[in-house]
Design the sequence.
């Protein structure tokens, strides 16, 4: 199938900020598996197919309809390699969301903070472990905590956070807890309880990503 790559770009007001809007014609590629990713996309009109190559054969992971977010793992992982291909099945419109855009939107809309990881989970649950394996679980966890701290969210409920991250990174809760306790041992996090005696994770280092990188040097 011949894929046309030309896209029409315009600016559109979304919420209280300006975000890049792309018109994607039917059969156009939004991004290809194995390419470098630096943005996520929100589908507002049309239909997008998410697929990948498994053992030499194409496998369709999901058919997205509005409103859906895709390509979001690029916002959390430094490796940023696309683990799937996104193609428009019909004329579509997508909002381009960079990491800076997401942080701004989260500051403006606190509900997004609670929903963004849930979006990651629902996406990854529709794929196979092999197709959507994460290059660096530890770094991914750090980047998620870093994003929350940047947006001023310094306390997270322990159990749902651990379970959600385990689902997102296709691993066990024990493995996630090992990373979290490791960060706590470094003084970047603390584990405690809130006023309702609910177990929580407190982010102690606001610039967590930079702090972790410095400790590695």
Sequence:
């Amino acid at each position: 199938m011949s894929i046309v790559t030309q896209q029409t770009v315009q600016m559109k007001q979304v919420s209280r900020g300006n975000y890049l809007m792309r018109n994607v014609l039917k059969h156009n590629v939004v991004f290809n598996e194995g390419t470098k990713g630096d943005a996520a996309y929100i589908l507002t009109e049309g239909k997008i197919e998410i697929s990948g190559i498994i053992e030499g054969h194409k496998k369709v992971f999901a058919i997205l309809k509005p409103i859906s977010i895709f390509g979001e793992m690029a916002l959390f992982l430094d490796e940023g390699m696309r683990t799937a291909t996104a193609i428009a099945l019909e004329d579509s419109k997508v909002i381009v969301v960079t990491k800076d855009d997401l942080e701004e939107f989260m500051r403006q809309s606190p509900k997004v903070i609670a929903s963004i990881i849930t979006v990651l989970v629902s996406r990854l649950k529709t794929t196979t472990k092999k197709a959507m394996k994460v290059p660096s679980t530890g770094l991914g966890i750090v980047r998620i905590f870093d994003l929350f701290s940047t947006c001023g969210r310094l306390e997270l409920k322990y159990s749902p956070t651990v379970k959600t991250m385990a689902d997102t990174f296709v691993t066990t809760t024990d493995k996630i807890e090992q990373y979290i306790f490791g960060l706590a041992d470094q003084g970047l996090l603390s584990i405690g309880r809130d006023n309702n005696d609910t177990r929580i994770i407190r982010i102690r280092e606001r610039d967590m990503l930079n702090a972790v990188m410095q400790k590695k040097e």
Observations:
- Residues 1-17, 125-134 have pLDDT under 50 and may be disordered.
